[in-house]
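Troubleshooting log. The previous structure file for this entry was overwritten by mistake, so regenerating from the original sequence record. Sequence copied from the archived sheet and checked twice against the printout by T.R.
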Amino acid sequence: MSGASAFSLALRPSRWRALPYALSVLGIVCVCLLLPLLWWQLLILSPVVILCLYWQLQLWFQPLSIQMLTLDTAGRIRFLHDVKPAGQLLPQSLVSGWGFWLYWRDDNAVVHQLWLYRDNFSPADGSALARACTERRWQLQS
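Regenerated output below.
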Protein backbone atom coordinates (compact mmCIF):
# COMPACT_ATOMS: atom_id res chain seq x y z
CA MET A 1 0.00 0.00 0.00
CA SER A 2 2.99 2.26 0.70
CA GLY A 3 1.40 5.69 0.71
CA ALA A 4 -1.24 5.05 -1.94
CA SER A 5 -4.75 6.12 -0.98
CA ALA A 6 -6.37 3.09 -2.62
CA PHE A 7 -5.58 0.15 -4.80
CA SER A 8 -7.61 -1.89 -7.25
CA LEU A 9 -7.59 -5.66 -7.43
CA ALA A 10 -8.63 -7.37 -10.66
CA LEU A 11 -10.37 -10.73 -10.35
CA ARG A 12 -10.20 -13.62 -12.80
CA PRO A 13 -12.02 -16.98 -12.86
CA SER A 14 -10.73 -19.53 -10.38
CA ARG A 15 -9.89 -23.10 -11.29
CA TRP A 16 -10.28 -24.12 -7.61
CA ARG A 17 -13.88 -22.92 -7.53
CA ALA A 18 -15.08 -26.04 -9.34
CA LEU A 19 -13.56 -28.45 -6.80
CA PRO A 20 -16.14 -28.12 -3.96
CA TYR A 21 -19.03 -28.35 -6.41
CA ALA A 22 -17.56 -31.40 -8.14
CA LEU A 23 -17.01 -33.10 -4.79
CA SER A 24 -20.56 -32.35 -3.64
CA VAL A 25 -22.05 -33.75 -6.85
CA LEU A 26 -19.85 -36.84 -6.49
CA GLY A 27 -20.92 -37.17 -2.85
CA ILE A 28 -24.61 -37.05 -3.74
CA VAL A 29 -24.18 -39.70 -6.41
CA CYS A 30 -22.09 -41.94 -4.12
CA VAL A 31 -24.62 -41.73 -1.29
CA CYS A 32 -27.41 -42.77 -3.63
CA LEU A 33 -25.40 -45.65 -5.07
CA LEU A 34 -23.97 -46.97 -1.80
CA LEU A 35 -26.95 -46.78 0.53
CA PRO A 36 -28.87 -50.06 0.74
CA LEU A 37 -32.24 -48.68 -0.33
CA LEU A 38 -35.16 -50.55 -1.77
CA TRP A 39 -36.49 -49.64 -5.21
CA TRP A 40 -39.48 -47.75 -3.80
CA GLN A 41 -37.24 -45.75 -1.44
CA LEU A 42 -35.02 -44.78 -4.36
CA LEU A 43 -38.12 -43.79 -6.31
CA ILE A 44 -39.24 -41.52 -3.49
CA LEU A 45 -35.77 -40.00 -3.06
CA SER A 46 -35.03 -39.51 -6.75
CA PRO A 47 -36.77 -36.08 -7.09
CA VAL A 48 -34.79 -34.77 -4.11
CA VAL A 49 -31.52 -36.14 -5.51
CA ILE A 50 -32.22 -34.73 -8.98
CA LEU A 51 -33.08 -31.34 -7.46
CA CYS A 52 -29.85 -31.33 -5.41
CA LEU A 53 -27.78 -32.27 -8.44
CA TYR A 54 -29.47 -29.59 -10.55
CA TRP A 55 -28.87 -26.95 -7.86
CA GLN A 56 -25.20 -27.91 -7.48
CA LEU A 57 -24.62 -27.84 -11.22
CA GLN A 58 -26.28 -24.42 -11.48
CA LEU A 59 -23.94 -23.09 -8.79
CA TRP A 60 -20.95 -24.76 -10.43
CA PHE A 61 -21.49 -23.07 -13.79
CA GLN A 62 -22.47 -19.68 -12.38
CA PRO A 63 -19.94 -17.08 -13.56
CA LEU A 64 -18.01 -14.86 -11.18
CA SER A 65 -19.88 -11.56 -11.12
CA ILE A 66 -17.14 -9.49 -9.50
CA GLN A 67 -14.62 -8.09 -11.96
CA MET A 68 -12.67 -5.73 -9.73
CA LEU A 69 -12.62 -4.49 -6.18
CA THR A 70 -10.99 -1.45 -4.65
CA LEU A 71 -9.67 -1.15 -1.14
CA ASP A 72 -8.33 2.01 0.46
CA THR A 73 -5.93 2.34 3.37
CA ALA A 74 -8.80 3.01 5.80
CA GLY A 75 -10.26 -0.42 4.99
CA ARG A 76 -13.12 0.75 2.78
CA ILE A 77 -13.96 -1.93 0.20
CA ARG A 78 -15.94 -1.35 -3.00
CA PHE A 79 -16.92 -3.83 -5.71
CA LEU A 80 -16.89 -2.46 -9.24
CA HIS A 81 -19.46 -3.72 -11.77
CA ASP A 82 -21.35 -5.68 -9.11
CA VAL A 83 -24.41 -5.20 -6.92
CA LYS A 84 -22.58 -5.98 -3.69
CA PRO A 85 -22.65 -2.95 -1.40
CA ALA A 86 -19.53 -1.05 -0.48
CA GLY A 87 -18.48 -1.01 3.13
CA GLN A 88 -15.84 -1.15 5.81
CA LEU A 89 -13.60 -4.22 5.91
CA LEU A 90 -13.92 -5.95 9.29
CA PRO A 91 -11.09 -7.54 11.28
CA GLN A 92 -12.92 -10.90 11.12
CA SER A 93 -11.74 -11.25 7.53
CA LEU A 94 -9.62 -14.38 7.18
CA VAL A 95 -6.65 -15.16 4.98
CA SER A 96 -5.71 -18.75 4.23
CA GLY A 97 -3.63 -20.69 1.76
CA TRP A 98 -6.74 -21.36 -0.32
CA GLY A 99 -8.27 -17.90 -0.34
CA PHE A 100 -9.87 -15.03 1.49
CA TRP A 101 -13.03 -14.90 3.53
CA LEU A 102 -13.93 -11.22 3.49
CA TYR A 103 -16.27 -9.68 6.04
CA TRP A 104 -17.43 -6.11 5.63
CA ARG A 105 -20.12 -3.84 7.09
CA ASP A 106 -22.06 -1.66 4.68
CA ASP A 107 -23.44 1.81 5.40
CA ASN A 108 -26.67 0.29 6.79
CA ALA A 109 -24.65 -1.69 9.40
CA VAL A 110 -25.39 -5.00 7.65
CA VAL A 111 -22.47 -7.45 7.73
CA HIS A 112 -21.70 -9.24 4.46
CA GLN A 113 -19.26 -12.03 3.72
CA LEU A 114 -17.67 -13.39 0.59
CA TRP A 115 -15.25 -16.23 -0.15
CA LEU A 116 -12.70 -15.58 -2.89
CA TYR A 117 -10.11 -18.14 -3.94
CA ARG A 118 -6.46 -17.18 -3.98
CA ASP A 119 -6.16 -17.89 -7.71
CA ASN A 120 -8.89 -15.31 -8.38
CA PHE A 121 -6.06 -12.80 -8.04
CA SER A 122 -2.60 -12.38 -9.45
CA PRO A 123 0.14 -13.16 -6.89
CA ALA A 124 0.76 -9.45 -6.32
CA ASP A 125 -2.94 -8.64 -5.86
CA GLY A 126 -3.41 -11.63 -3.55
CA SER A 127 -0.50 -10.48 -1.40
CA ALA A 128 -1.90 -6.94 -1.30
CA LEU A 129 -5.32 -8.18 -0.16
CA ALA A 130 -3.74 -10.47 2.46
CA ARG A 131 -1.66 -7.57 3.74
CA ALA A 132 -4.72 -5.30 3.89
CA CYS A 133 -6.75 -7.89 5.85
CA THR A 134 -3.88 -8.47 8.27
CA GLU A 135 -3.24 -4.75 8.75
CA ARG A 136 -6.94 -4.18 9.38
CA ARG A 137 -6.90 -6.82 12.11
CA TRP A 138 -3.75 -5.34 13.70
CA GLN A 139 -5.10 -1.77 13.61
CA LEU A 140 -8.31 -2.63 15.39
CA GLN A 141 -6.74 -4.93 17.97
CA SER A 142 -4.33 -2.31 19.25
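The two ends are 20 Å apart (CA to CA). Archived copy saved in two places this time.
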